[in-house]
Amino acid sequence: MIAEAETLFERGGYVHLRRAFSVYRELEEAGVDRSRFAAGYAGTALLLAARAREMGIRTSEPLSVARELIRSEAAPAALESAAEVVSRLPVKTLGVWADASSPAAVPDEESPDRERPSPDFEAGPADRPLFAYLRALHREQAGQTDEAKADLAESLKTFPGSLLL
Fold first, then answer.
1. What is the pLDDT of residue 78?
2. pLDDT, tens digit, for every residue of 66-124?
C-alpha cells in the first residue's frame, strides 16, 4: 500500500493526492509502523493542502496532519519550512467549495495577520521536487515572480517529467 500511495503522490493531481492521503490514513488506522511512511504521508498532506488552496477548496485536515507528523518527529523537520509556505497560501477563490471529506472544512486555523518568520529552504533537501515547487510558491508570494519562474524552470531541468512541477 505504501508503494501505491507513493505512486499516487508522484502524479501530483488533486484527486491522486486525496487518494494517497486516504491510503496513508488507512495504513495508520491499520497500525502499520508510522516510521515506514511518515515522510511520504507528510509530503502528501502538504502538497494536498497546497493544491486545495490553489483550487479554492477550504480544508484544514491535510495541513494539520502534516504539522502533527512534523511535531511528533515522525516526519523530517525540514518539512516545517514547507508547512509554513503552505499555511501562507491564500485560498484562491475564497473557499467557495468545502472538501466534504474534511470534518473541519475551514481555512488554516492560524491568523493570516500573525507575524511569522520567513521559511528557511536552506534546511530542506534540494533534490526533491516537492521542495522545488514550494520554494517557487514562496517566491511568488513574496512578489519575486521572475525568481519563481526561474526556480521552476531550473526545477523542470533537474526533475524532467515530474508531474509535481
1. 79
2. 999 989 988 887 788 888 888 887 776 544 444 544 444 344 444 444 455 566 655 55
- Write the single-letter amino acid at 153: A
Residue 156 vs residues 12, 106, 132: alpha-carbon distances, Å: 14, 33, 9
Give 134-140 contacts, CB < 8 A, sequence gap 24+. 134/46, 134/50, 134/81, 134/82, 134/85, 134/86, 135/85, 137/50, 137/85, 137/89, 138/85, 138/88
Residue at 57: amino acid letter: I
- Please state whether the predicted TM-score (pTM) of the whole model is above 0.70: no
Cβ contacts of 68 within 8 Å, gap of 6 or more: none
- CB–CB of 34/74 below 8 Å? yes
